[in-house]
Amino acid sequence: MVVEKRHYVYWTKFRKDTSPLLRRFLLIASALFIVAAILHILPFFTNQGEIDYLFFFVDLGISAVLYLEYLLKNKVPLIIRVFSLISTAVFISVLSFVRSGLLGTGEISLAFIIVSFFVFLPPILSLVSSLLISILPAIVGVTVYFSWIQFPEVLGIRNNSPREWYFKSISLIIFSILSGFLIQRLRAKLIKNIVYLKESRSKILNTKKHIDKLAFYDSLTHLPNRYLFEKLIKSRIELAKPETFLLLINIKGLKVINALHGISFGDQILALIGSVLKQFTEERPDTLVASLGGDEFILWIENSTKTKIENAIVRFDLNNNQILTPERLGHRLQYRVSGVQFPEDANHLDEVIRKLSIAMNVAREETLTKLVWFQSGMESKIEREQKLKIYLEKAINEQNFKIAYQEKVDISNKKTIGLEALARWNAPEFGNVPPDEFIPIITKSELIVPFGKCIFEKVISHIPKLLESYGKQIQVSINISPIFFLYPNFNEYITHCLSENLIDPKNIIFEITEDVFIDEIETIQRIVSELRSKGISVSLDDFGKGYSSLHYMQKIQFDELKIDKSFLDDIANSDRNFLLLESICHLADSLGLKTIAEGIENEAQLIRLKQTSCHVVQGYLYSRPEILFD
């Protein structure tokens, strides 16, 4: 069944390809019949022989019919064009046999018809048709045998012999079989080669499409990639319409999703986001979207306004899909967006993407999802950050940081019971850079571990002098970054440094904040337990600033609780804030924790604080951070 279908497809494609050939064939045949018509009236000009008006008009009429079929092109079905050729050849052959017997061109015409059969008709039909046509001379022989047709003696004795006519039919039958076999074999190979070439061409085109897809489209989201995006908007850039904008969308937390659910699930999310953006742009011809790879997408938007785009960003929600529900992901899927206006902010694509990236850096610092438009001041800020990053790398390698110490005071006797070590940095070209500026740069630049080691080792080297100045029982607090705290072999590193410098672990207290990953709670619990088992105290810093402090207190045994400055600012004026502070102190007491009040700056705050169970303070009221060494 499959073979028959394949042969049918071969024949259908071959017939389609031979249709133009048949038209040319009709044109040539029409021209030959005109030549034959001219030859039949040639005696009129040479005065030799007789003019054959019958064949003249017949040849002329056949030529006109064939030429008309040529002009009508595909309006005349293929079978009619073939049939007209066959009918013409049969008519000419019969007329030739009747007029001229075996001396005419009838036999040649029949041979032509037989070849045409095998060229333009299917195999079985062509063989049957050629055999039927081949018996035409035998039919003439029968008419001669019964004396229905008698040829004059001038045409020869052979014309009146039925046997001669029978031999012509036999020779035509042999010719049909031999020529048919040869033509069919050649045609079969030709058809096969044609089909093979067409299939190869189809495969090449499909391969080219696949290569183009790989070259111009993102394989995951099926959106145009940056290369195709540049090509698509090239003409639009030259004819840029007013109110044209480009947006950069960055998906937040994709690394966490990959870690929790696997890379394939993260890819599924990106593919879904791509389909959402694709659907959005297909409905809007003035909008183009592309994938820049990873978790970033870029949009070109024409004929809009900043207000409309900002409103659309606020309404755009990635969590309205079953796959992306917060319940399934463990948190809401969020994104950051930066934007530039074209050509006001930038007038070519490389500059656009550079400024989009600059605005994206600012967007990453935002806590809420909103669109951050590029502003000229951002560029200078990025340049400053890049320079600071270079200087920071050098400062860490050369340990060019200084340590300022701020006292912790027991308000009951006004004695200093501890010190907090705070990093200070004087940068070339920029002077003193505050920690709230250089610490985030260190974190983003993945320098936090070498920075943490640098500060820790520097503080360790100061401890002997601090003990001489403040007494042997003094404790030095060191802020530990969450990234450094979760660094592999952190405890081994700390133990080795203390042992090498002969420092008693009881003089050290590590302050950690709750912004360590809550997913790492078991690891944090283990690290804290190991530190405390070696005599090192651990403090929960900035208590109440975040949302999971109580969760940490439930799971982890701390030694100290540092109440965030935000709880203390208004305790002198707000009874509500004072009650909150009092409740925190009672909670810490019930858990056996020592409480430290940060940011005490005036006497009114101190008076209120004395009414609670918290008696250790740290703030400008008693001391400011001071660089004691170097």
From TrEMBL:
Segments traversing the membrane: 21-41, 53-71, 78-97, 103-121, 128-149, 165-183
Limits of the GGDEF domain: 242-376
Keywords: Membrane, Transmembrane, Transmembrane helix
The keyword Transmembrane appears for this protein: yes
InterPro entries named in the record: Cyclic-di-GMP_PDE-like (IPR050706), EAL_dom (IPR001633), EAL_sf (IPR035919), GGDEF_dom (IPR000160), Nucleotide_cyclase (IPR029787), Rev_trsase/Diguanyl_cyclase (IPR043128)
Organism domain of life: Bacteria
GO molecular function list: cyclic-guanylate-specific phosphodiesterase activity
Residue ranges of domain EAL in the record: 385-630
Record flagged with keyword Transmembrane: yes
Protein name listed in UniProt: Bifunctional diguanylate cyclase/phosphodiesterase
Species this chain originates from: Leptospira perdikensis
